[in-house]
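Q: My collaborator sent me two sequences in one message, no labels, and asked for predicted structures for both. Can we handle them in order? The first one she listed is below.
A: Yes, handling them in the order given. First sequence, followed by its structure tokens:
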Amino acid sequence: MTFERVSPSRLSPALCRFLVLGGVVLLLSGGIQRVHAGEPAGTNTTSAIELTNLATRIRPYVHLRSGEFDTVWGVQDMWGFSVGADLNRHVGLELAFDSYEKDFDPFGTKIGEESLLSLAPQVRLRLPLVHDRVVPYVVAGAGIGWYDYNDPTQDGFGTSVDAQGTELVITAGVGVDLFINDNVAFNLEGKYIWLDQLNISVDGQAGTFDMADFVGTFGFRAYLDDTTKLKLFDVVEEPPIRIYFGAGFGGAVITDGNWVPGVTLVPESASIGTVGESVELALGFNFGRHFSFEIPVDYYESVIQLDSIGGVSGGVGEYATYALIPSMRFRYPMMNGKIAPYLLAGFGGTYGEVNDRYEKPIYVTVDSKGFAPAFAVGGGIEYYFNRDVSLFGQVKYIQSWNNQIDVNGMGEESGDLSWLHFQIGFRLNLLSIGNKAE
């Protein structure tokens, strides 16, 4: 008996979940590093941001955000990403991408999930305050939204569902940027995403489904220009310790998915060959010119596939893997600190669990939840836009062993698993301790 997997379109929720960690550490590390009123007498209190605004310089940025707490009102796995620019002191333009899900229950019973992906050009009107360190704003725009049905529940299997489509999206909201330094701001934003209800059909029964809702997010806005003439930190005489937050997105290949006899891991949603989604979030610090220590979490979701076990073949459920592997990075700054190739290595563990089970006979059970030891090795390269923001690309091999699994209550077996992750992303300096001159 073979069961085909219904391929979900949702993107990984890991970015939403681990931005919580970044926000908490940011607040604990002291929040806004500089309050001008408290600086020593004689200090130049005109920041790079103030000079930029006075000169009406265009400042390009990226905005990473999470709606982790929106589950309170039924919005799930909400995250967003924007690319934009402040055109002058008060006006900005951006292209905003937002993604979230809701329980799909048009006739009272949840039979799956409905996702919304929206892409909307937006205008931001800003009001810089407190030496431009606190910047409230309003935002509004219009674009397009894509509906998609995914992850059917047991009540939804075997049901004919037509719940895909596109609609006009209108967005409006408010937010505030709290600048940690001249190039990185902690952000809070709330906006309403409005679009027409989608006409749907479930087993021939017509209806509508509404995905319009309020989304509240927190995250970071990172500016990509260099407003100062100061040297990058890696080339000053005594580089300060820099605490940073990193976020990367990309793909992963399962290099060893032969778990135990009859059980294999395969990609959850391979968009290119056998490549599935991969997300990394990290907290770390750079010390000196050449060394960094970080605690990354790499997230990857795959499918447990059985080969004629209990009369069942095919995918029976999704398997989420979180790799928490503290790592050292050896960095080699070049070109006056603008580029820094690096090698990494670390030892830690993985946590895995079965979720989103697929349709299967009730006599087939798969149980796997727990920790396993693991190591990671790899390398990458960073490009520094300024002292506080860098773009990185990296490749990382993760090997995990003694992963436990129990099929049909026949007793736990263990096996080795491995993945090759490759990602691009940003590292944002949250706090610098030591020499910041030059």
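Q: And the one she listed second?
A: Here it is, processed independently of the first:
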Amino acid sequence: MIMRKKIIFIILISLLNIFIFTGRSYAATPISYGQILPGSISAANEKDEFTFSGTSGTVIAVLAAKTQGDLVPYLELYNPSGTKVQENYITILGYPLQANGTFKIVLRDYQNTNTGNYEICLYKINSPAGATSLNFDQTVSAQLTSPVKVDAYKFTTAAAGEKVFLSLSIPSASSPNFYPNAFLCDAQGVLVAQSDYAGVLSKTLSTSGTFYLFIGNGALSGTGSYQFTLSRWQAPAVFTDINFGQTSSGSLSSPTEIKTFRFSASAGDKVYISTGMLFLNQGDFQPVVELFDAAGNLLTPTDYYPMLYSFSNSGNFYIMVRDNYHNGVGLFEFTLQRTNNPANLKSLNYGQLIEDPIEVVTGINAYGLNATIGDNITLCSGIKAETQGDFGCNFELFNTSGGRQVDAYGSLKYTFAASG
């Protein structure tokens, strides 16, 4: 009898050892919002547990990334009653807690067979503490030192309907698979917009108030530096006033920087903008101009060629200059002109020889002449010796309403269909 009990006892102990080994877990580790914790799964079926105090209505995100080994992190979230409420590979994003109390996060290998090291982080999405305040037209440079690190920023809009634009880039060498993404959420933690593959985020905000911007590595497998600029399309915070006939120049000292210029126009005005880049550029620098009205509506497609646009209403308008691919810096230049009633217009007569310099890369010289219906004209150009760069003369002929009649390089022939 005693012998039988002993055998049963030994068998039970052996089974218990097997159970503990195959379902290995340890005491739960407390984790706080914004805290990054390292860990490891060192055996098959091992599970690591983390606990945090949650409040109903808090929107959370949990990120996990492998740092070594073959581990494929898989996450499970349990409410205070012990019920599993969420599970996913690598991330649990934007989950609103439904109760008050202690929640548990379980991290394991997806197949329960692989091992390796990892990092895990818990974030609060709605009104996160410690978010950095942003101003419009501010350029921010920062670094993500962990694959699961997320930086939080906040800004405020005064009225519904504001249009925001963000460009995000990697200004320096980073580890492989480092692809920073931007996520924009409202104060309730609802995702409003996110950046595309080119690092651009643009959104018309349907409400006013405080918004939160989160920057993290979308691949969850690398670290590195990032840079972004947040701008507002209507009523920009910083701008330079310009006039028709004026050439403006400047520099973009960071790949995401935007320079803004303001001018006034009347209904029926036809605007002409020529854009160019100067020397001392770095990276794949290609400045482009975008034209907006005072309400922040984009009036023309993004372009780096001469832009023509006819205004249907009067008011203030804005020209924004940025690098097309958000990965270069350099000097830019553009000239703003009006094809109806051009500024700085010079008289031109038949048989007249004109010698005028083009003193800037985007320079435009405007001439006016009187013609009669049926007149045939010829314009010829020559280049003097003291030119610089790949200089060539281009003619464009416009009627008094600003409509372009003909565009020709080097020489021009045209027969007038109307007098004026």
